[in-house]
Amino acid sequence: MSKLALTRYLYIYDEVGFSFITALLKKQSINECYFWISELFLSGYEKESWELIWFIYYDFYYINNPLFETFLFKKCGSGELKDIFTVVKN
Questions:
Q1: What is the DSSP letter of 90?
Q2: Model's pTM, two decimal places?
Q3: 1 pLDDT above the threshold of 60
Q4: Rounded Cα–Cα distance for residues 27 and 12 (Å)
Q5: Which of 65, 89, 61, 63 is CA-nearest to residue 75?
Q6: Per-residue pLDDT for 3 more than 90?
Q7: Were 8 and a residue from 27, 39, 41, 43 both cysteine, which residue would form a disulfide, CB within 3.0 to 4.6 Å?
Q8: Is 53 within 8 Å of 85 (Cβ atoms)?
Q9: Average pLDDT, whole number, for the chain?
Q10: Would you call 82 exposed, middle or buried from its count of C-beta atoms within 10 A (0-12, 13-18, 19+)?
Q11: According to DSSP H, which parts of 1-90 are helical?
């Protein structure tokens, strides 16, 4: 039996990722998207947060927005929360 990964507010790690994807794709409140991605990022999952952003981009947005990739590369390297918020907003 494997251990359950939890975030800082004791949400299940996998469910936080799914909640973020759902909120983003359904174009729900931007604040909800910010909450879920910040929950991952501030819980110590910085690398995983960016991997999730890349996954979503390539699976859902790349076909219609191929030039966004260079913007994403620039923001990805900094490792700051404000940069991940900027990517989510755009």
A1: -
A2: 0.90
A3: no
A4: 22
A5: 89
A6: no
A7: 43
A8: no
A9: 92
A10: exposed
A11: 13-25, 30-42, 46-56, 68-76, 81-89
